[in-house]
Write a sequence for this structure.
């Protein structure tokens, strides 16, 4: 859990601003692994607003892998279907 928290905070610390600091504070005080799991979306949204979604998703991919084996099977990443038109 400590490594995941540190990785999330490291990504956020590169940027400043009130919104980033608010998310960082929530990550810092998350009480368990499940709370960090749900905060991934907030971290992704904060990074996307600054760096763009493609870059943010790439940054978060490492963090997502750190959760492997630490969460119940129903809480893992879900495959996304691409929609093509």
């Amino acid at each position: 859990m400590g490594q995941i928290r540190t990785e999330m905070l490291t990504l956020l610390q590169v940027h400043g601003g009130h919104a980033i600091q608010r998310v960082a504070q929530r990550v810092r005080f998350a009480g368990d692994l499940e709370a960090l799991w749900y905060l991934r979306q907030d971290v992704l949204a904060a990074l996307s607003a600054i760096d763009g979604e493609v870059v943010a998703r790439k940054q978060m991919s490492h963090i997502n892998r750190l959760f492997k084996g630490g969460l119940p099977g129903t809480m893992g990443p879900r495959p996304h279907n691409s929609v093509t038109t």
Summary: The chain has four helices and no strands. The two ends are 40 Å apart (CA to CA). Residues 2-70 form one domain.
